[in-house]
Write a structure and sequence with these properties.
The structure holds 2 protein chains of 2 kinds. Chain A is of the alpha+beta class. Chain A has 3 domains: 145 residues, Beta-Lactamase (2-Layer Sandwich); 128 residues, Immunoglobulin-like (Sandwich); 107 residues, Immunoglobulin-like (Sandwich), CATH 2.60.40.1170. In chain A, the strands form 5 sheets. In chain A, strands 11-13-9-8-23-21-16-19-18 form a 9-stranded mixed β-sheet, with no helix packed on it. Chain A is globular. The mean pLDDT of chain A is 85. By secondary structure, chain B is α+β, with helices and mostly antiparallel strands. Among the domains of chain B are: 208 residues, Leucine-rich Repeat Variant, CATH 1.25.10.10; 125 residues; 108 residues, Immunoglobulin-like; 112 residues, TATA-Binding Protein (2-Layer Sandwich), CATH 3.30.310. In chain B, 52% of the residues lie in helices and 9% in strands. Chain B has 45 helices and 15 strands. In chain B, the strands form 3 sheets. In chain B, strands 10, 11, 12, 13, 14 and 15 form a 6-stranded antiparallel β-sheet that branches. Chain B has a 5-stranded antiparallel β-sheet with strand order 1-2-3-7-5. In chain B, strands 6-4-8-9 form a 4-stranded antiparallel β-sheet, with no helix packed on it. In chain B, helix 35 runs antiparallel to helix 36 and helix 44 crosses helix 45. The longest helix of chain B is centred in the last third of the chain and has 24 residues. The chains are: A alpha+beta, B alpha+beta. Chains A and B meet through strand 2, strand 4, helix 2, helix 4 and strand 7 of A and helix 7, helix 9, helix 11, helix 13 and helix 15 of B. Chain A: Belongs to the adaptor complexes medium subunit family. Chain A: It is a peripheral membrane protein. Chain A: This is Adaptor related protein complex 3 subunit mu 1. Chain A: Keywords: Cytoplasmic vesicle, Golgi apparatus, Membrane, Protein transport, Transport. Chain A: It comes from Athene cunicularia.
């Protein structure tokens, strides 16, 4: 019989050493040998990051993602939007993360039955069915230590015995009958600065990407509306499905019935017209001497405009050229490590105090005889600034309708380095 | 329900047939035993049976050939499976569960557990829900291999299909349809048909999911399945929409005609469909639009002005239709966008802000393929946003951006910097970004881009450097201005330490030089020198070709290079050897004196080469260039052949023309047609008839979003609970303002969706306070007021014994003869009596209740407001024991119930009075109205003007009291009196209709005074209306109850304005 089958046919989970440690088929069984094409591509790619997400084989197409040292390889038979599959696989990984605290091989192996039950619910005949965490949690309870002990004694199950009414509701992201003794709503405004700074210290490219992550523990069916002092800052926004789009369009107010628990409310980009304040500067002197097997390395990090807040959690990572054998450095602050295998230098600086700027300085040992490296490595900087949204975004107020109690409301601002790179 | 019967019959019979097969293997009677218990037992099975069955079935399993399994020698495995079987046979759920868990773990690892089939399958009816679920998992995995035994489980699912709980029905259908056993195709077909008309939308969704499963099992069922799809496409719930379009796409994507009638509905539901469904629907609609509408870009210049403005944002369906017709009638050249085309574009746009990358991509491709050029730009921002996502998402998005950026460069130009490359990006991402940057390069930004490229060239990632060099080459060919700059830069790279970089530069330079060789002999000379060092074959071949081609520009060097190459010929790669032969031939033709011998030598070497290609080439060239007697006519043309002017290669993107594949598709990504790819059709020359999309009830198009829908839909007969939560059930299928006659039919149609009703009921309680609802309530009240006044005006019913004032002007004020104390309550003044609805006859199942404020003192208690209630029985049965119960007054509020009405005959109307102490607040009084069968929750909300009773005062008293109520207690408002409300009596009538107040005599003829006391606390309320010239007037209200004062001012102003 000849027929077409769409969407996701099978899923294989493969660890870094190439073991297939889980397989699930939604239609008829596809042999593991299909993964050989994947291994072939993986070998060709050298680097895990460079395995092409879509691989064409004679009878199937393989679409894969790489998350937390696991390859999620899905088998497709016919035309399907690749992003559809990729997005779904990431949703699967997110769900594992949500359920087991981590999305690792051990976690998956330890909870193989729950994993199987989850996959069964998430896809029907290869088409996504229930992907909302709230619905899934009604269907299959996440494991906890206590429950697993109780289960092993009483033989009771992880499968919720209540029926998943959420699937039928108008608001599939929220389950009914939520009850808390302390009603709380927390919003974390997290902004990340993506930047490329060139050799001379001028900014080639900088932009601010932000998200609002929420933790809502409110009883009943609260209807929230969140407004900003300066909503015009938000240039491009993507929403959780719970947000009423029209309300945002007309009033620039986020109005929504929230899911229960942790979720990402919006992510946004701050309009590019606004100049981005770069909170740190880096002075660097990296040089490799011609015909001698050594080089100099001298990096100083200092705070720039940061509105009186402390820059903390500063970490610098540098992928040194292959010719580098070892590094002898002294740090005036924090500690550094150099991995001679991966050639990655990591300097954990900590907090920057403007009085005494942290500095890392010393000698680079090169492989003798090897040509001097062409390029100086670029420096990747991470940092954190508490209590500050670098774009200046401010939450104005949060109102709740539909419930009578008074919730506790909290907003936290934090600025981080995103993809922050200094070219040298 | 009648249609169910044959189905059941068939279902009951079916399993017995196929189950007969094990008979042959397992032996006669036992098989009978095996099947019957499963069919007979209603819930769970007696353990004795299962034990017996397991015994009997074991030999059956052993006859199956053992399939090689993963680990361990077969004997141990065998034994272990035995112990699993024992656990499954036990009657302890915990043991069964443990066993099932181990089996599922085996399946997960890809180990074969098929020999456990008989032991597992009988647990399908197990009470423990987790065991059951795991058995399903097992069944779905192995049923295909053990079809006969799988049939034993079917009856369980058939029972499930009849379960009253929708979720159980759905899950039974899900598992049943997942068992890939061809013999149950008829059962599946019936089950799907039945589920497609299930009350629950969730079950219907599951039915839609089951359609492709059945189709893949037996494609002969197509025609029947299309019928089901057609039916489900007409479904109005968002839950079903995504799934049924998925089924449509798999079973009958060519039946585009099925979409016509549902097109507008799908467009309008789209925003509320779950995200995965959105992707499928958008992709399908893209294809649909390509077949049904005209290309928006055909008359670009004309388009800009005319069409856009006319249709943008036009909401009214009728107007739209009219315009569309006009447009199609006119059939003039200027392009006019079909309003349905516009509808699609407008309704998909908000989805660009979805958090789901697949949805964003789907909308982006829709805009790319369907939108007028001027509007495509909106997708750029969203696509750029996706570049922050996981690297796999970036990979796919960049591929699509690369294709788009060739066609529509301007769109991404503002985001140029977002494509800058970081050293930490994976190589495949870097190369794609490079592609996009190159596509975006133009005269204005090229210098920035080249500066950026310079940084890239020093990267440690050599593949990336090579790609950068190629990108520079492409920029140089595309933008003439920078060609020299690029060339110089590339020449500098020739002295790079890294051979790969040099080689790539050589290749690119070769291509660039071909465009203007004469000016660049220096570079060619420089490159000739490189042959000593460069080992990369492609680069060597390129240099040789260059020298050969332009040997006239470097007459001295060329023969020398050939000499060197002849020396190393045998060690060269094939590609280089071919170019050596080529060079030799060209030199022979131009400079045979110096190179004749060398050429002979090279050709001789080539003659004995291992590679036949090279041997062939050598033979061919020798014949062509070396004149012999036999050599034919071609010899003369050898020089022309070899030294012909060759066109310069065009360096173009590998993404050029990829957009003939639908963007975002797998085929586009792979650049080959994937299996099952649906070609994106070209725009038609003539638009097909747009009227095919007309539906009888055009309300759809009006409600494009949750919000709008909320505002517009007035459903007086349901609780309006739907509003707030964003309805899944798009209730707007029903006519917007339902007249009373059609009401009954609409209420019965609502019962077809059981779950919604439940939802509504739940929400009814909780959502009461929501603002929107109040708004709606208000609207409703207003309408009712109108109705009420109309009814009153007609006066023919005679239902209102008090209604004498309904139309007639208020009687002129007669000062009372007796002098009364200042606080003497007056008999009520009658304005137009308004009736309000308490219970509509639809909601009350035939019982309709209206109320009005009679404005008489309530006999029992002076602090209560008298509410006259009129109850009509429109049913055809007697209503008994009508009474008020369980009043739930807010604090302080009191309700004096009316005496129970024993019986109310059909068609009769009775009027009763009840008293309510509202505590001088406009809060609603909630209570239940009970009949012998039903309870109705009702509430009475008084207008502020009804919370008071008129008092008599003299002018002096009025002034004195007014003097006490100054400052905060005084509220002043300017009023403009409309034309018809300037006469004395009109003003008085309006004020007294708005509030239950008495007129106070007044000396001045441009002033009107009224006084009243609140019913509960007896606080004075004094109203003064002072007419100025023309329409202007000033309204002053003095009352120590400020809230009442404020509200009263509002009400009076409103009343006067009417």
């Amino acid at each position: 019989m000849c027929f077409q089958q769409k969407m996701i046919h099978s899923l294989f989970l493969i660890n870094c050493s190439g073991d297939i440690f889980l397989e699930k088929h939604w239609k008829s069984v596809v042999s593991q040998s299909v993964c050989d094409y994947f291994f072939e591509a993986q070998e060709k790619a050298i680097d895990v990051e460079n395995v092409p997400p879509v691989i064409s084989t004679p009878h199937h197409y393989l679409i894969s993602i790489y998350r937390d040292k696991i390859f999620f390889v899905s088998v497709i038979q016919t035309e399907v939007p690749p992003l559809f599959v990729i997005e779904f696989l990431h949703r699967v990984a997110d769900t594992f993360q949500d359920y087991f605290g981590e999305c690792s091989e051990t976690a998956i192996k330890d909870n193989v039955v729950i994993v199987y039950e989850l996959l069964e619910e998430m896809l029907d005949n290869g088409f996504p069915l229930a992907t909302e965490s709230n619905i899934l949690k009604e269907l299959i309870k996440p494991p906890t230590i206590l429950r697993s002990v109780v289960n092993s004694i009483t033989g009771s199950s992880n499968v919720g015995d209540t029926l998943p009414t959420g699937q039928l509701s108008n608001i599939p992201w929220r389950r009914a009958g939520v009850k808390y003794t302390n009603n709380e709503a927390y919003f974390d405004v997290v902004e990340e600065i993506d930047a490329i700074i060139d050799k001379s210290g001028s900014t080639v490219f900088a932009e601010i990407q932000g998200v609002i992550d929420s933790c809502i523990k409110l009883s009943g069916m609260p209807d929230l509306s969140l407004s900003f002092m300066n909503p015009r800052l938000l240039d491009d926004v993507s929403f959780h499905p719970c947000i009423r789009f029209k309300r945002w369009e007309s009033e620039r107010v986020l109005s929504f019935i929230p899911p229960d628990g942790n979720f990402r409310l919006i992510s946004y980009r701050v309009s590019s017209q606004n100049l981005v304040a770069i909170p740190v500067y880096v002075k660097h002197m990296i040089s490799f001497k011609e015909n001698s097997s050594s080089g100099r390395f001298d990096v100083t990090i200092g705070p720039k405009q940061n509105m009186g807040k402390t820059v903390e959690g500063v970490v610098m990572t540098v992928h040194m050229p292959k010719a580098v054998l070892n590094m002898n450095l002294t740090a005036t602050q924090g500690s550094y490590t150099f991995d001679p295998v991966t050639k990655v230098l990591t300097w954990d600086v900590g907090k920057i105090t403007p009085q005494k700027l942290p500095n890392l300085k010393g000698i680079v040992n090169l492989q003798s005889g090897a040509p001097k490296p062409e390029e100086n490595p670029s420096l990747n900087i991470q940092f954190k600034i508490q209590q500050l949204a670098i774009s200046g975004l401010k939450v104005n107020r949060l109102d709740m309708y539909g419930e009578k109690y008074k919730p506790f409301k909290g907003v936290k601002y934090i600025t981080k380095a995103g993809k922050f790179q200094v070219r040298t | 329900m009648l249609s169910l019967l044959p189905v059941q019959k068939l279902l009951r019979q079916l399993p017995a047939g196929p189950a007969g097969r094990p008979k042959k293997t397992a032996g006669g009677d036992t098989a009978e035993e095996v099947t019957s218990p499963v069919l007979a037992t209603e819930a769970g099975q007696p353990t004795c049976y299962s034990a017996l069955r397991a015994e009997e079935l074991r030999p059956l399993a052993t006859t199956k050939p053992m399939v090689a399994t993963g680990t361990g020698p077969p004997p141990t495995l065998w034994r272990r499976h035995d112990d699993l079987k024992e656990m499954l046979d036990s009657n302890k759920d915990s043991l069964k569960l443990e066993a099932m868990k181990r089996i599922v773990a085996m399946i997960a690892r890809g180990k074969n557990a098929s020999d456990l089939f008989p032991a597992v399958v009988k647990n399908v009816a197990c009470k423990n829900i987790e065991v059951k679920k795991l058995v399903y998992v097992y069944l779905v995995r192995y049923a295909e291999e053990q079809q006969d035994l799988a049939l034993l489980s079917i009856s369980t699912f058939q029972r499930g299909l009849k379960d009253p709980n929708q979720l159980i029905r759905a899950s039974a259908l899900r598992v049943l349809s997942s068992i890939r056993v061809p013999i149950i195709v008829p059962i599946m077909m019936l089950a799907i048909k039945e589920a497609a008309s299930d009350m629950s939308p969730y079950v219907r969704k599951t039915a839609a999911h089951a359609i492709p499963k059945l189709y893949s099992l037996d494609s002969d069922q197509k025609d029947q399945l299309i019928e089901v799809i057609e039916k489900l496409l007409a479904d109005k719930t968002t839950l079903v929409a995504g799934s049924v379009v998925m089924a449509f796409e798999e079973v009958c994507p060519e039946r585009i005609d099925l979409i016509h009638k549902n097109y507008r509905k799908l467009c309008n539901l789209l925003i509320d469909v779950e995200e995965w469904g959105q992707v499928v629907i958008i992709n399908m609609l893209t294809r649909y639009a390509r077949t049904q509408f005209l290309s928006p870009n055909q008359n670009e210049s004309l388009l800009e002005e005319s069409a856009e403005k006319a249709f943008y944002g036009s909401e009214d369906e009728d107007a739209k239709d009219a315009k569309a017709e006009a447009a199609s009638l006119a059939k003039r050249k200027p392009y006019v966008m079909d309003p349905d085309h516009r509808l699609l574009l407008r309704n998909t746009k908000p989805l660009l802000q979805s958090r789901n990358a697949a949805v964003v991509m789907a909308v982006a491709q829709l805009y790319f393929h369907l939108a007028p050029k001027a509007e495509v730009g909106v997708i750029a921002k969203a696509l750029v946003r996706l570049l922050r996502s996981h690297s796999e998402v970036q990979y796919v998005v960049l591929q699509n951006v690369a294709t788009m950026s060739i066609k529509r460069r301007g769109m991404f130009e503002p985001y140029l910097k977002s494509f800058y490359i970081r050293s930490t990006d994976p190589t495949q991402i870097k190369i794609l970004k490079l592609e996009v940057l190159t596509n975006l390069a133009n005269e204005t930004n090229i210098s920035t881009i080249l500066r950026e490229f310079q940084t890239y060239i020093r990267s440690m990632d050599k593949d990336f450097v090579a790609a950068t060099i190629q990108a520079i080459g492409r920029c140089a060919t595309n933008i003439g201005k920078v060609r020299d700059t690029c060339l110089n830069g590339l020449v500098q790279l020739l002295s790079n330490r890294d051979e790969l970089v040099v080689a790539e530069s050589v290749v690119v330079i070769k291509k660039l030089l071909q465009m203007q060789p004469a000016q660049h002999s220096e570079i060619i000379k420089h490159m000739a020198k490189l042959t000593d060092n460069i080992q990369v074959p492609m680069a060597r071949a390129s240099i040789l070709w260059l020298i050969g081609e332009y040997c006239e520009h470097v007459p001295k060097i060329a023969p020398d290079v050939l000499r060197k190459m002849a020396k190393s010929f045998t060690n060269e790669e094939d590609i280089v050897k071919l170019q050596v032969i080529n060079l030799a031939a060209k030199l022979y033709l131009t400079n045979s004196k110096q190179s004749k011998l060398l050429t002979q030598y090279v050709l001789n070497l080539a003659k004995y080469d291992q590679n036949y290609d090279i041997r062939d080439r050598a033979r061919f060239i020798r014949q062509l260039i070396v004149p012999t007697e036999k050599s034919g006519a071609l010899n003369k043309y050898a020089k022309k052949l070899f030294l012909a002017q060759k066109p310069a290669p065009i360096l173009e993107s590998s993404f050029k023309d990829r957009d003939h594949f639908q963007l975002g598709s797998l085929s586009h990504l792979l650049n080959t047609k994937a299996v099952g790819y649906q070609e994106l059709p070209d725009w038609p020359d003539e638009a097909p008839d747009p009227s095919v999309r007309n539906v009888e009830v055009p309300e759809w198009t009006k409600c494009t979003s949750r919000e709008k829908r909320k505002e517009k839909v007035e459903k007086p007969f349901y609780s309006d609970s739907e509003g707030e939560s964003g309805p899944t059930e798009s209730a707007d299928s029903e006519p917007e303002s339902v007249s009373e006659e059609s009401g009954s039919s609409s209420s019965s149609s609502s019962s077809s969706s059981g779950s919604e009703e439940e939802d509504e009921d739940e929400e009814e309680g909780s959502g009461e306070q929501s603002e929107d609802k109040e708004e709606e309530e208000e609207k409703r009240l207003k309408r009712k007021e109108k109705e009420g006044s109309q009814k009153a005006a007609s006066g023919s019913t005679g239902r209102y014994p008090l209604g004498r004032a309904s139309r007639s002007p208020i009687p002129p004020w007669h000062p009372p003869h007796r002098s009364l104390g200042p606080s003497q309550l007056l008999s009520p003044a009658f304005g137009a009596v308004r009736t309000y609805e308490l219970l509509h006859r639809m909601a009350g199942e035939g019982l309709s209740v209206e109320y009005c404020f009679s404005r008489r003192p309530f006999p029992g208690d002076p602090h209560m407001v008298a509410v006259q209630i009129q109850i009509s029985n429109n049913t055809d049965a007697e209503v008994k024991s009508l009474r008020v119960s369980e009043p739930k007054p807010l604090s302080g509020m009191r309700i004096q119930e009316f005496p129970e009405i024993e019986r109310l005959a059909p068609g009769d109307t009775v009027s009763v009075v009840m008293g309510i102490d509202f505590c001088d607040s406009t809060q609603a009084a909630n209570f239940q109205l009970c009949t012998h069968t039903r309870h109705f929750y009702v509430s009475i909300q008084p207008p502020v003007g009804e919370l008071m009773a008129p008092v008599f005062m003299s002018e002096n008293e009025f002034k004195k009291e007014q003097g006490k109520l100054m400052g905060m207690s005084e509220i002043t408002e300017k009023v403009t009196l409309p034309e018809k409300c300037r006469s004395d009596h009109a003003i008085v009538q309006q004020v007294t209709s708005a509030a239950n107040v008495g007129r106070v005599p007044c000396g001045a003829d441009n002033e009107y005074r009224f006084a009243a006391k609140t019913v509960t606390s007896g606080s004075l309320v004094l109203i003064t209306l002072e007419r100025r010239e023309g329409a202007a007037a000033q309204l002053i209200v003095n009352s120590e109850k400020m809230v009442i004062g404020t509200m009263l001012v509002k009400d009076i102003v409103q009343a006067l304005a009417q």
